[in-house]
């Protein structure tokens, strides 16, 4: 679904003067209030990150994209990454990095890995880009601080604390477009207690009616007698997200709570449309982190909890072999500790993490009992940044992650072994890697 015409208004409230700008095509009107900064260099704001990390990382800033852009839309414009969507605005979206399958890219929010026990891939359509300050896209090697896992790299959605890039405390955007597209978002960020603490609060809504017109050949490409134009039904959605976060200005501590809710229709295929099927998803993420200096060593501690609730409704059996009314519940929690020490011009990093997940599939029709599964595990990690010269222009980083996981899977629902308990299993997975960085020139 492509919007034919979209009007977006962005208001940044400041005690300073505001500057108004109107695009020549009349499609977008933007009102921005900003504080000038002679030392501001937007083109170089990610220079130190790009040159300082051995893993290939791209920083995607929300203020460089439209207010209605999704996380997947922004990632799709970067090198080496592709996004896949099952429809238009509000549809399921996933990312593939360097050709790896979508499930091979770890998705994190403020360093917290999302649960993967219910589904390997993460629907990026549930998260609006404007709800975050920036997105970190790692290709290949993933830093130890983010778990060091992920064959296809990692995607870290980061909440921006404090004021915006132009010094604004408030930002409000509102818009509407084709096929009932609409959005409303409010953001507040500022410093407190003499600049020692930074905070950010965001509340947003986005939705669409859908029902756009498409050509249907009736499943018979060579028979024009059954061709017609039809309206795509049951493909609307409503989405609400809210987040509040606070942290120290020196980034030594931070914590917050994020809630995201989405209700969407499941339209089915063109040959077999569904008019009553729907899926509702609720995500709640809470985390707290802090840095502790122990002599020359810095210890970074993280604790988190996640809750994901999904409701699948298919009362007319339009998607499967029968009517469905099911609830999915995922509970996750974990903690990690990362220790970093400078060893001359080199640097050593060690980490330890634990995690537990529980999944439950309940059938509200009462035709079968609830199915449950769980997974608990831990990992030890290590990396060493070896500078081959005194100027540190060439850095080689060998790293390893050793993970042990105990899984109690849910029983199969079909076949001769249906609803039979499956024994728990243990898996030990070593993941070695080697990355390198060479600074060819200063910039």
Spell out the key features of this protein.
5-stranded mixed β-sheet, about 450 residues, mainly beta, about 0% helix, about 55% strand, 13-stranded antiparallel β-sheet, disordered N terminus
Number of helices: 2
* Class derived from helix and strand content: mainly beta
**Main β sheet profile:** 13 strands, antiparallel
Percent of residues in helices: under 10%
What are the low-pLDDT stretches, counting only 5+ consecutive residues below 50?
1-43
Rg: 24 Å
Give the ordered list of helices and strands: EEEHEHEEEEEEEEEEEEEEEEEEEE
Strand order of the largest sheet: 1-11-12-13-16-17-18-19-20-21-22-23-24
Task: Explain what this protein looks like in three dimensions.
The protein has 443 residues and is an all-beta fold. It contains two helices and 24 strands. It has helices at residues 47-52, 71-75, and strands spanning 6-13, 18-22, 29-33, 56-61, 81-85, 93-97, 106-109, 112-113, 134-139, 154-158, 170-177, 182-192, 197-208, 213-216, 228-231, 237-248, 253-265, 278-294, 297-314, 324-343, 346-363, 371-387, 394-408, 425-438. The strands form five sheets. It has a 13-stranded antiparallel sheet, with no helix packed on it. It has a five-stranded mixed sheet with strand order 4-9-10-7-8. Strands 2-3 form a two-stranded antiparallel ribbon. A hairpin with a 6-residue loop joins strand 2 and strand 3 (29-33). The protein is globular, with a radius of gyration of 24 Å.
């Amino acid at each position: 679904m492509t919007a034919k015409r979209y009007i977006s208004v962005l208001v940044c409230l400041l005690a300073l003067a505001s500057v108004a700008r109107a695009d020549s095509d009349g499609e977008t009107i933007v009102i921005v209030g900003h504080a000038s900064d002679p030392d501001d260099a937007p083109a170089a704001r990610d220079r130190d990150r790009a040159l300082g990390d051995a893993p290939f990382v791209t920083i995607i800033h929300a203020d460089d994209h439209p207010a209605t852009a999704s996380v997947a839309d922004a990632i799709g414009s970067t090198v080496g990454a592709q996004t896949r969507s099952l429809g238009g605005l509000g549809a399921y979206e996933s990312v593939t990095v360097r050709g790896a399958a979508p499930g091979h890219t770890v998705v994190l929010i403020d360093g917290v890995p999302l649960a993967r026990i219910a589904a390997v891939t993460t629907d990026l359509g549930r998260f609006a880009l404007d709800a975050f300050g920036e997105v970190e896209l790692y290709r290949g090697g993933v830093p130890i601080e983010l778990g060091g896992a992920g064959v296809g790299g990692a995607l870290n959605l980061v909440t921006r604390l404090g004021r915006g890039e132009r010094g604004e405390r408030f930002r409000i955007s509102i818009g509407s477009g084709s096929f009932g597209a609409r959005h409303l978002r409010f953001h507040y960020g500022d410093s407190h207690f003499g600049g020692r603490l930074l905070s950010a609060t965001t509340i947003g809504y986005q939705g669409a009616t859908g029902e756009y017109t498409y050509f249907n050949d009736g499943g018979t490409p060579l028979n024009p007698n059954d061709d017609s134009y039809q309206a795509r039904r049951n493909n609307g959605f409503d989405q609400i997200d809210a987040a509040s976060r606070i942290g120290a200005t020196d980034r030594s501590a931070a914590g917050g709570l994020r809630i995201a809710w989405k209700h969407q229709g499941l339209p089915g295929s063109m040959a077999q449309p569904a008019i009553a099927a729907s899926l509702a998803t609720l995500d709640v993420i809470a985390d707290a982190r802090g840095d502790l200096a122990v002599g020359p060593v810095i210890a970074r501690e993280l604790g988190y909890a996640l809750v994901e609730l999904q409701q699948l409704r298919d009362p007319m059996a339009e998607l499967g072999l029968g009517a469905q009314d099911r609830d999915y519940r995922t509970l996750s929690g974990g903690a990690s500790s990362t220790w970093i020490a400078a060893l001359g011009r080199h640097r050593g990093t060690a980490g330890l993490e634990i995690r537990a997940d529980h999944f439950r599939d309940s059938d509200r029709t009462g035709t079968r009992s609830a199915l449950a599964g769980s997974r608990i595990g831990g990992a030890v990690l290590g990396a060493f940044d070896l500078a081959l010269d005194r100027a540190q222009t060439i850095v080689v980083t060998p790293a390893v992650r050793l993970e042990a996981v105990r899984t109690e899977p849910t029983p199969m629902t079909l076949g001769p072994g249906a609803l039979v308990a499956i024994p728990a299993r243990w898996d030990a997975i070593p993941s070695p890697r080697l990355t390198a960085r060479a600074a060819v020139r200063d910039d």
